[in-house]
Amino acid sequence: xxxxxxxxxxxxxxxxxxxxxxxxxxxxxxxxxxxxxxxxxxxxxxxxxxxxxxxxxxxxxxxxxxxxxxxxxxxxxxxxxxxxxxxxxxxxxxxxxxxxxxxxxxxxxxxxxxxxxxxxxxxxxxxxxxxxxxxxxxxxxxxxxxxxxxxxxxxxxxxxxxxxxxxxxxxxxxxxxxxxxxxxxxxxxxxxxxxxxxxxxxxxxxxxxxxxxxxxxxxxxxxxxxxxxxxxxxxxxxxxxxxxxxxxxxxxxxxxxxxxxxxxxxxxxxxxxxxxxxxxxxxxxxxxxxxxxxxxxxxxxxxxxxxxxxxxxxxxxxxxxxxxxxxxx
Amino acid sequence: xxxxxxxxxxxxxxxxxxxxxxxxxxxxxxxxxxxxxxxxxxxxxxxxxxxxxxxxxxxxxxxxxxxxxxxxxxxxxxxxxxxxxxxxxxxxxxxxxxxxxxxxxxxxxxxxxxxxxxxxxxxxxxxxxxxxxxxxxxxxxxxxxxxxxxxxxxxxxxxxxxxxxxxxxxxxxxxxxxxxxxxxxxxxxxxxxxxxxxxxxxxxxxxxxxxxxxxxxxxxxxxxxxxxxxxxxxxxxxxxxxxxxxxxxxxxxxxxxxxxxxxxxxxxxxxxxxxxxxxxxxxxxxxxxxxxxxxxxxxxxxxxxxxxxxxxxxxxxxxxxxxxxxxxxxxxxxxxxxxxxxxxxxxxxxxxxxxxxxxxxxxxxxxxxxxxxxxxxxxxxxxxxxxxxxxxxxxxxxxxxxxxxxxxxxxxxxxxxxxxxxxxxxxxxxxxxxxxxxxxxxxxxxxxxxxxxxxxxxxxxxxxxxxxxxxxxxxxxxxxxxxxxxxxxxxxxxxxxxxxxxxxxxxxxxxxxxxxxxxxxxxxxxxxxxxxxxxxxxxxxxxxxxxxxxxxxxxxxxxxxxxxxxxxxxxxxxxxxxxxxxxxxxxxxxxxxxxxxxxxxxxxxxxxxxxxxxxxxxxxxxxxxxxxxxxxxxxxxxxxxxx
Lengths: 329, 643
What we know:
The complex is a heterodimer.
Chain A: H1 2-25, E1 28-33, H2 43-50, H3 53-56, E2 59-63, H4 72-77, E3 83-87, H5 88-96, E4 101-106, E5 113-118, E6 133-136, H6 143-151, E7 157-160, H7 166-169, E8 175-179, H8 183-188, E9 197-201, E10 212-217, H9 218-223, H10 225-244, H11 246-259, H12 266-280, H13 295-307, H14 317-320
Chain B: H1 7-77, H2 82-95, E1 99-106, E2 120-125, E3 128-133, H3 144-152, E4 156-157, E5 161-162, E6 169-181, E7 184-196, H4 198-205, E8 208-209, E9 213-218, E10 224-226, H5 238-245, H6 248-258, E11 263-264, E12 269-270, E13 277-285, E14 290-297, H7 298-301, H8 303-349, H9 365-411, E15 425-432, E16 440-448, E17 451-459, H10 463-480, H11 487-500, E18 508-516, E19 521-527, E20 533-535, E21 541-543, E22 563-566, E23 572-576, H12 578-581, H13 593-602, H14 608-623, E24 632-639
Antiparallel strand pairs in B: 1-2, 1-7, 2-3, 4-6, 5-6, 6-7, 8-9, 9-10, 9-14, 11-13, 12-13, 13-14, 15-24, 16-17, 17-18, 18-19, 19-22, 20-21, 20-23, 23-24
């Protein structure tokens, strides 16, 4: 009885203190949506959240889940999230359709979209793809392949690709789309050795479309640019921490995956985290400022979008990008 | 290092090591053979177990496969409307307990020209059968179950998946069916049935090998369909586990498994459950290309043989230790008396003959050695006793001989010149005994103022008897010598005395002379002695004419003649014993009378003592180091004449 009473008392006092803290810290509440559920592709955000890096930057961040039926760009557009992780190609198309989203940080610098083929099917060069059945994802995942086929003058049979690579594994298609950090490793871990595969990275063929970037709506940015920039900055800090402490980062991300009831495979997430490092801090390109969008990348993506008729006009980069002060490292 | 160790140590080391080596060989062979036998047994047993398991799985799969295959056949060859289609699907779900759901999914507008999506689906739920259309939200055209058989144009089992609601793991068998359109066979859709994999899981999880062995099933992608660790199911592939473990051989095994091969893992596979090292065997499930793997924990397989080996090892080691002890005991029993005997031999070597040889009861080599040692000790003791005795008597004799020599030397006049006040003659003598006591003697004495008697003799034999005989003779001559007595009479008297009491038949050669120092007349008798040499002042050197009377002391009453010789002043006489003329050198040559004459003629002019040393030197020079067996006695006399 006494225990129950003291526990009750404790709860009252504790919740009072908790409320006090929340009220007095003056953290700015911000919601963020990545494209998908928790996985190492977003470890920087989850690590920043889990390690209190956002709090340190004065932010009370809430991370929601994206998904195939909840595109992050639409959630942002609807105002259901303050910040979203969106592909550059998607964002430019949105902007050209007068959706006033603004890039406050370009996290992924190198495209990891690729075509994967089996050498046993006689595919070693892009030309070998001519006349083959190729699995492609929809929408913005097709922009680079289309350009690639056009450039190499390839006539291919496009097979719509689902989220699995089973059709490819069973030779239902000759080549499949994949993200380097995800499907490629899935294929390796389905028993196909790397030396049995031919990989075509679009980024190696002049089609480097930087992918995940951080976007806000213009209104939101105007309302509190400091908070938005603090988020971008804290996120980069989270990425850095994750790459410096990969095992801890994996522990964190796996925890969130289990909580979200997503199948969690540590070795796969490890691969993903390592590849994220490769595409967020690409080696051998000194001119890049991590976390920021380069004009040449913007121009390349815009030009291709225009050529494919996906946009009519190229939006002005100065309205598209907001350079946060102190983001230049 | 080894050479310094005792026999016991060497024996123990040798026997223990060689026995251990033999034991190790037998043990290893036994281990290998029994291991192979057990492995073979396991292989046979596992083959049975695996065959049973896979055939149970195959039965489930093939019986399921027939249903959509028959349906597809129906759809291809018969006309039907929706209600007939529904009836068929309902019946499939209703009549087949293992089938969870069934659907027919058509290509866009293939069933109804107005409908892009047409896919009626009947499925079990809460004990009843429910129905729904798979619609545009589900968008079945890009799903594996639809796309893969469509593209490959063959029936396909899908990868396992969690069914609606998440709980149940399922796999589907999808069969493409075709329609003839304008004479062309055209893809029309997919007939699909879902089965729950729970039953399959029960089959596989019923595999229990020994304590911790288990079976698992992987799909065509290597994904775990069943596994004792729940987290592995659908989450891990055999390749991701291999990557996690950094185990290339596991990856290779996985590749062989998904390629439909069967076999054994070449290298040990770690059990995911216990971490134990296991032998993995795998066989394909032919119907759907999956693979069944079974892990046999190595230590559990080998536990019987390991136990046996432990016992054998303990027995072996114990045996070796006992053997070592036995060897120590035997070696001790050999080496202990040996050690004692070595000590005793050492003590005997240093002269301790009182050392006790241990009593060894055995009649082996050690016993014989002990006996021999004891015998040696006793013999040595006796021998040494004998030597001690002999040495003592010899020492006594030697001291007696020494005394005798002293006596002998004492009775020979040794002071020279003996008569310093006399200038009318000079005399010098010397004897070198071959042994301590010789039989030679000389003597000279004045009978009165004008008569000098001088004698030289050589008793037969050596040693004390000869010395005594000589001393006796000398005393007799001195006692009997008188001025008027003729030397022949003197000799006869002496001969008679000696012959009378001479049981030993000893004799003596004697040359006896009496010189009248006033006239130079020499009277002499020679009793068988070497003739003296006369050296005249004129330089003539010759042997004195004195053809032999008999040696003295051998026959009583023998006559001895007396002769005379006139000496002139300056004449000399040299008397000697046969030790001089018969002195031998290394070539067995004797000094000889001739040589003596030659030597004397060279040194005749010298004084008496010089003549003696001259001859002595000549003899020494002749004989060199050759030891002489006879006494060498010389006497020289010079007559210088009266006033």
